Amino acid sequence: MTPKAWLFLALGLLVAYYVIVWIASVRERRAAGTANDDVGPGGPPKPVELFIGFVTNFFDTLGIGSYAPTTAMWKAWKIVDDRLIPGTLNVGHTPPTIVEALIFIAIVEVEFKTLALLLAAAALGAWLGAGIVSGWSKRSVQLGMGITLAIAAALFIIKNLDEMRGTPMIPGGAAIGLSGALLAVGFIGNFILGALMTLGVGLYAPCLIMISLLGMNPTTAFPIMMGSCAFLMPVASIRFIKKGSYALRPALGLSLGGVPAVLIAAFIVKSLPLTAVRWLVVIVVLYTSITMLRSARAAKAA
């Protein structure tokens, strides 16, 4: 088999294990009568939960990212308890992200060694991060997400301003792979980004910036960032699932609404002028960051 075929096989096995763990966990908790607010009420996702899954994954496929917009909508409409947001993001967005990764790894050329090592780094970071975040208190999650969402908004601003320039400040290069010290820097960077993903910080914008700064063609960021998420999210999700640190119905809404959105965005729409959308995301993410930090402050005062 080709190297990409082996990569797809590894991803398939990982996804199969993630699905088995998820189904077994839900069945076990419901049989024990503990499938309450920790994993959410039974029944199919509500229309608003499917809508959030569709919209966020549609724009995710076009490079916007899904974590920050999803968090903002959940927070505004009080759909998911703050403590459960990181786990629900990872568990629910995993299936659509895997579809994205399969599409972009197949169609965009990137050197295999670089791709494989950066994907492995993200998965290792996620395993470490999920083990920590899944045991955090509600206030710790609010504080952590408030800070990291503010960082995400700053990265969105940098990316938007850079694209508005006639000559981008971070133009990237023409390379489709890394070697030596640059590969080591990329490995460490993606490890950190994988760990931050478990706290609800999207990987797309910082990964695109990192890939460009390392001299690679920015187009190669798509299979790297989507492939990183496809490998790290099942890894992180398994830890969140085993600890029951997620909300079931909103997670199903992300998955069921997200997969068709990915296919529509990738094969029908393909591209849109997204600068205005990114500025809207900046505003929403900053608002959500402030809301999270205020909630954490109120919890401390109480």
Description:
It is a single chain. This protein has 302 residues and is an all-alpha fold. It contains 11 helices and no strands. It has helices spanning 3-31, 47-61, 67-77, 85-107, 112-133, 138-164, 180-197, 204-213, 221-242, 248-269, 275-301. The radius of gyration is 18 Å and the shape is globular. It starts with a helix and ends with a helix. Mean pLDDT is 85; it is low at 36-41.
Give a quick account of the main beta sheet: strands, pairing sense, barrel closure: none
Rg computed from alpha carbons, rounded to a whole number of angstroms: 18 Å
Helix content percent band: over 70%
What is the H/E string? HHHHHHHHHHH
How many helices? The count is: 11
What is the number of beta strands? 0
Derived from helix and strand composition plus strand pairing, the structural class reads: mainly alpha
Average of the residue pLDDT scores: 85
Which residue ranges are poorly predicted, with pLDDT under 50 across at least 5 consecutive positions? 36-41
Query: Which shape, going by the Cα principal axes?
Result: globular
In short:
The chain is mainly alpha-helical and 302 residues long. The chain has eleven helices and no strands.
Question: What layout of secondary structure does this protein have?
Answer:
Layout: H1 3-31, H2 47-61, H3 67-77, H4 85-107, H5 112-133, H6 138-164, H7 180-197, H8 204-213, H9 221-242, H10 248-269, H11 275-301
